[in-house]
Amino acid sequence: MRTTDQYLDLITPFFRGQPKFTETVALLTDIIAKMEAFVANNLPQCFDVDTAIGVQLDQTGQWIGRNRELTEPIYDAYFSFDIDGLGFDQAVWQGPYSPVEAIFFLDDETYRRLLYAKIAANNSDGTFETILSIYANFFSDPNTNLYIEDRQDMSYVVGLTGAIPPVLEQYLLTTEFVPLKPEGVRIYYEINSINNKAIFGFDLNNQFIQGFDQGTWGVTPPLSSTGVTPIVLTEDHANIITTEDFYEIALEP
Prior knowledge:
Layout lengths: L3 H5 L10 H23 L1 H4 L7 H11 L4 E7 L26 E4 L2 H15 L5 H11 L5 E7 L4 E8 L4 H8 L11 E7 L6 E2 L8 E2 L7 E2 L20 E3 L5 E2 L4
Parallel strand pairs: 4-5, 6-7
Antiparallel strand pairs: 1-2, 3-4, 3-9, 5-8, 9-10
Helix pairs in contact: 4-5, 5-6
């Protein structure tokens, strides 16, 4: 990256010391030097996934391999005082230029977290521990807990407990916008039916599974195309992996 002074140093001896010539060269090369400085110091930040916004973030997303357009519009997802599940920290705020009836595109911050997840998925080794860490970093509320139950039949269940994620995040999870589905493996989703509660089950008592008067039924997320019948976990279920300690609990039959 050159400066204006470096360009002036290139003036041949015959023209050095001539003020008008020097000023002309300085005027012409100053623009070039400033453009070079902008490209070197500012342009990369405009397309950095951490700082890019708007169309610059769109271009970064194309390079990563995920655009912000939803597969299909999400209806009834805007904030409302009188609809359960669409309150504060649950629904999407409708902006002055937002579509009236549905959501077609992701906002910058949600799209940015989706790109982080896509980058992590591109480098994933496919293990449950890695999958859980990617899911955990995707959700905006750190009080959302996740576990994975391996059904031992080429399918597994992704369970959410604790803070129920916003509607938009549930959609992105269940429609596999976060590409963590192994080839040939079916994924089911279940979520606690009451906010900040665990899912009901036997023989476990933690933030994921709790018993009578504490646990709630695990239900299918409302936007999920594939669901799972509410599960009561017993000793017949094995290989439950959680975000808390990233290890496998082997329950002996």
